[in-house]
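Human: Not sure, check this?
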Amino acid sequence: MIDLESQPALVVGGGKVALRRVRTLLEAGAKVTLVAPEASTELIRLAGAKQIAWRKKIFASDDLGEAWVVVAATDDPEVNRFVAEAAGPRRLVNVADQPELGNFRVPVRLQRGRLIFSVSTGGASPILARKIRDDLAEQYDQSWEEKLDRLYEERRQMKASGWSQAERKERLRRLVEELITDM
């Protein structure tokens, strides 16, 4: 997990995988630029709505600009390799179909308010990662958003209470046990 709020991100490719990566980056608050000569209807809509910038062209290394995160998501392995090499080791690089060329992978995610699960199989099986996420979704339903908000508020109040660290730790341990018991 990384804070991408307002960070520049570049996605190369205009298909389904690129769309998934763009959505993930937008959810994280990144400022997304898409580079692709053609794009899916949904990517075109996002560009038209000014949610992303779209450079309707073939990728060139000068497209990297200030991008902090770079995603190569074309259907051409050679283009993806070129993007990864051009991005170099000082950026976060994800290569959709060749994860070994990048330095980070995009996990599937489940969020229940403050509770966030990230699941990755290291590129071995995205289908398995989604299955595990779906199993977790059944175990940790929407009620966990409220439970974590309560726990957060309790913890915040305890910090301000003047209780010793040992007292706070014990009280928090009991609260967590209560949450788990209620599952």
Notes: The CA atoms of residues 32 and 51 lie 8 Å apart. The chain has three domains: 8-106, 109-139, 143-181.
